[in-house]
Amino acid sequence: MNKSAVLLVLGSCLSLQFGAAVATQIFPHAGPWAVTALRLLIAGAVLAAVARPAVRSWSGRQWTAVTAFGISLAGMNSFFYASIELIPLGTAVTLEFLGPLLLSALLSRSLRDGLAVGLAVIGMGLIGVDSLTGNPLDPRGVIFALIAGAFWMAYILASKRAGQLVPGQGGLAMAFVIGALLVIPFAGDGIGVIATDSHLLLLAVATALLGSVIPYSLELAALRRLPAGVFGILLSLEPVFAASIGWVFLHQDPSALKWLAMALVVAASVVITLPAGKASAERAASPSGNSSDPYNRTSPSPA
To answer: How far apart are CA 95 and CA 4, in angstroms?
Structure first.
């Protein structure tokens, strides 16, 4: 196994969740919707400057695919940020993971993937029990995280379609911009607040770099060196990274039940990502991986 590629994926997970932690520092001043809009806009501007997409030559089909991609990015990022304003980071990521797990199970319909979803559902049940007995969660935050997971499902499908129709990173760059434009109307005066405060603006730039540009670059490099199955298993550690970052930097102390719930979701992600049978094993042994695997992403980590 390519150890440097493994470090790239782990670095991506760390950067993504650290970016989310930085974003929460802006929420009291400008709200999650303004932070989301600026994150997408800054990331889109950076990627567009690098990719220089030839948008004038795009066909209607290409624009439709990129627009759908942008809508999924807008919903996924906005509702995730809205959730982590109200509930702990690790819990929000764990809930959001239900989206890709469910999609993978629906696409394969195998007994093994059904078992994986069962593990995840048990994990969600533990979060519910913990919320009722000791550490209550804001119901709005839970709903927002689940909505973000639904948009993650759409993101997986839309990113694959856009990647097939638009070469390079131009589609992703424009999807970021479209997503930002869709979120801006919900940002209120938050964008103005951030733009006129140098400290908040610096945090917003850091959020865009840590939450989008850096993870995307690291994952893209890792995908060229790792089998898709290994890549997916490593990404399954995101809830653990999220809980750890929340614990260290945001003073969010997950209970034993929440840690167990996260462990079950990670286990479910590992089960659903592992290749089944000889043919799947052969596909997973190739760095190109299985194109139908939702974790074989060629675009940045969600949220």
So the answer is: 30
